[in-house]
Write a structure and sequence with these properties.
With 60 residues, the chain is mainly alpha-helical. It has a domain of 41 residues: 434 Repressor (Amino-terminal Domain) (Orthogonal Bundle). Helices cover 53% and strands 0% of the residues. Helix 2 crosses helix 4. The protein is globular and about 25 Å long. It starts with a helix and ends in a 10-residue tail after the last helix.
Length: 60
């Protein structure tokens, strides 16, 4: 699921991670808490990503 968020349609565009995550949550009508449960990461991580304070590692 994390792969889908960061390497989906938006991966080809020059969009920051925080914008991608917010758009993903909006398109899927998810709260931060719901996304946390789906991804198995902390809410603090989601908040940091959406504020541009966290740069997630690239999956490979």
């Amino acid at each position: 699921m994390v792969y889908q968020i960061f390497y989906s349609y938006y991966a080809s565009k020059l969009v920051d991670y925080e914008k991608r995550l917010k758009v993903y949550r909006a398109r899927h009508d998810l709260t931060q808490e719901e996304l946390v449960k789906k991804l198995g990461i902390s809410r603090q991580t989601i908040i940091a990503i959406e504020k541009g304070k966290y740069d997630p590692p690239l999956l490979g």
